[in-house]
Each structure stands twice: as structure tokens, then as C-alpha cells.
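Q: What changes when zinc ion is included in the input?
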Amino acid sequence: MSTVGKVIKCKAAIAWEAGKPFSLEEVEVSPPKDYEIRVKIIATGVCRTDAHAMSLSFKEGLFPVILGHEGAGIVESTGAGVTKFKPGDKVIPLYLPQCGQCKFCLSPKTNLCERISKVKTPISDQDLMLDGTSRFMCKGQQIYHFMGTSTFSEYTVVVESSLAKIDPAAPLDKVCLIGCGFSTGFGAAINTAKVEPGSTCSVFGLGGVGLSAIMGCKAAGASRIFAIDINKSKFALAKELGATDCLNPQDFKKPIQEIIAEMTNGGVDFAIECIGDIKVMKAALGCTTVGWGTCVIVGVSVDEEGFTVSPMELIMGRKINATFFGGWKSVDSVPKLVTDYMAGKFNLDALVTYTLPFDKINEAFDLMREGKSNRTVLVY
Ligand code: COD
Ligand code: ZN
Ligand code: ZN
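A: The predicted holo structure follows.
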């Protein structure tokens, strides 16, 4: 029986309040309105940002909410006005939209889009659809969307400019990582830092994002790649993916930036922070070389205001930059990244530590919090 135009009842993980585990619930998912698409999610990764969004320290989160922003699925139905998608298309929801018409989308200088340009933090954005309503209900209550994607529901509704159509042969339980972790880290190295052949790099934080940044540094031809983490169990995979030196800051008396500077005749060419920790951001900037060192910030600190940069650090030629979704224009780039993966140009499979049934979502978050996984992919 066709579900088109009808409310679909399905499984979702709801975060009812901050700091509590998810509850698996039956939710009602309304049909897509104009320029919206309802997607059956097949697989979704678990990213640290989802954990930030449900943490007690993140003050801007709205509850109850369906989190999840690293999914892949199949179009179930389309609302009026949708021209680019049809039922059956394989797709990746995009938390960074690309409307194609705003001043940002029309400029090659940024991958941001007007739809996300005014937010205080990108992870507290797109809590509702563009008409200010939700497509999710549970127990008579409206449930908030998250980042315009809400992939922790078997069915979700997204805006047309927040969706990329991908190769129908793509394995969704792997390419879902292109929806966030892989693209963010890889792009931070390739697009934002613009890592050069023969250069030295340091990557702070070896989760799914940092490991992807290492892959980006390697693909760009870096000759030396420092991988920094306080969890040494991350080092073996970092090496496999291209790291030449793995360092645990806790093994040294001196600050890690000094150690790296000593090992590199004054500092690295590029440093990428993939943690979201203010102290580490300072260390990342501090480990770059005077003259031209570039520090790229990927992480967002959810419970601290910001960090100070001394004018001298900048006067001495260091640059600081940051990236959202790795600098990729989402609608244009995601299908190409999927094609590149299918052509064997990079290794997504290595990032997947566990693949679990969706019902084990709380276990997947525990694995991440305990430092036992780079990425867990949940399949419905
Ligand atoms: N020093 C060294 N390593 C550390 C430290 C520290 N002080 N603290 C933690 N680490 C290591 C951990 O052991 C872990 O291995 C790694 O850092 C972090 O990995 P994960 O798996 O927790 O995180 P990722 O890779 O899923 O995500 C990292 C982000 C930086 C993207 C995330 O934390 C973040 O800041 N998100 C907000 C930014 C945003 O919205 N991005 C877009 C969507 S992700
Ligand atoms: Zn993410
Ligand atoms: Zn736009």
C-alpha cells in the first residue's frame, strides 16, 4: 500500500531532554510539503556533534528532538514543486544546504548558504522546517528537527536544497559518512587548509573527522603528518591512513605545541583542530610555523566562549581559519565524493569501527564517549 500523502508511523530515537539517553519511540512523520522530500533513512553515522547537541552544557538545544546528521537513504515521496528528486532515488541529507541562488551560493569564495548564514551555532539551526512547523509528532507532542536532517528517524523530511542525489549503486552504510565526518575532515585539509605537497601537518583529535583530515593531508601530498590524541588506541588506524608521527600530549612535560615545534624546525605548515576544545585550538595555532603557518579549526566548543589570539601570532605570519562541512558546496560536491569513493579514491570503510542495528543507538553513543569507536554506523 502506498504511503504517499499519508502520515507514516515509524521508529525514531527521541532525545526528550538534555543529558538523558535516547528513547526509541514510534513517531508520526507527516508527508512532505512544497519543496520538501520524505526520505527513508537506511543508515546513519553517529557523530560527536549529536552528543554535543544533547549534552547538558549545550544551552541552545531544543527538546524533544530527533538528532542525527550523517545519514543516507532513499526518497519515499516528494512534495509539490520538487523537480530534482523522485521516489527511489538514493540520497544523502545535507545539514549545510546549497540553495543555489543566494549571494553565498553564487560565490566561489564560500560553501555557506543564506539559509544557514545567520545562526549563532550551526548545530542549533534548522530545528523546524522553513514554514516554522515540524513534520514529527510523538505522543501528541511536536518534536524538533535537527540540522535540517534528523537522521535518527526511519523516515525524515528535508528541504530540496538540503539533499544530494547519489550513485544508485552506492553502499548507504558507508557513504552516509560523506554526510558529515569524512567530508568535514577531508575537506578541512584539501579545501580550507589547502595542504601542499611536501608540507608538514598536524591533526588534533583522531575521531572520524580527524582521521578524515589525515586522509586529506595524505591525499594532498603532505610529507609529514603528526596525529595527536590523548587516546593512544587511535594511533594504529591514524598510521594506516597516513600519519607519520603519533603523539599523546600526556606523554610530555612540555606543551605539545613546543614538542611539535622542536620536531619540525619551528613548527608545521598546517594544523587542523578536530576536537572542539579551546586549549587544543590554541595549541594547534601555536604549533604552526612563523611566516606562513595555517591553523584550521573544525571543532566548536559548546560550553566556552572563545579563545584569544595575540596580534603577535598573526603579525608573525600565522593564519587562522575555520571550516564548516569541509568547505564543500554540498549539493554539488556530495555526489562527486560518492563517485570518488566508488572509484576507490579514499577509504571510508576504515572509519567504520562498528555497524549496529538502529535500536542500539545508546550503545553507539557509549562507544563514542568511551573512545572505543571512530564511527559507528546504525542501520535500520
Ligand atoms: N587532546 C587531544 N585529543 C583529544 C582531546 C585533547 N584535549 N580531547 C579529546 N580528544 C580526542 C578524543 O580522544 C577523540 O579521539 C577525538 O579527540 C575526537 O573524536 P570524536 O569521535 O569525539 O569526534 P568527531 O570526529 O566525531 O567530531 C569532532 C568535531 C570536531 C566535528 C565535533 O566535536 C565538533 O566540534 N562539532 C561541532 C562543529 C560542527 O558543527 N561541525 C559540523 C557537524 S559535525
Ligand atoms: Zn557531524
Ligand atoms: Zn544559498
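Observations recorded in class: The domain at 185-323 is CATH 3.40.50.720 (Rossmann fold).
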